[in-house]
Design brief:
Length: 192
Amino acid sequence: MSSSETGLPAGWEVRRSNTKNLPYYFHPETKDSRWEPPAGTDPTQLKEYMAQNHSSKGISASTFNQGKGSDRIRCAHLLVKHRDSRRPASWREAKITRSYEEARTQIDEYDRMIKQEGRSLSDLATTESDCSSARKGGDLGFFGRGDMQKEFEDAAFKLEEGQISAVVSTASGLHLIQRFGPPGTAGSSRAD
């Protein structure tokens, strides 16, 4: 795969992790690997490449069996980081410089697009989320109590299946969270 396809600097390529089943960035010559894109990446080109080649378009029914009969839930999220986030970098931007207020304006716009335009959180997360889970439509898989940051976890566990949260602020940034239900569950309910 050439860097012209991906927007990555020369020598870098996108590979898929066997353990996390997520794409990551790898340089075969130096053996350097990372979850965040290397310096010199063209974020617009990488965004297009990842949306075409590494996005998830829906949730397979078989993965729901992993969480049945347990106190674990499955969620997706859309994350907007700001310069005061604990790691102000993402696959989209090597260095995030936007203020908290700018990040809030941005996530409020995504929230509006979901509410008023009927956009799905998963589709928006694929191209707009600052989390590496964007490659899977924001899908974080199953998690239990104590696995996530407290603010995120508290909001996620309060959601009904299919519901999308109001904006949640954590040390990572600002999130919209959707809790998944059984296959076929409508995802348009809101928890404001």
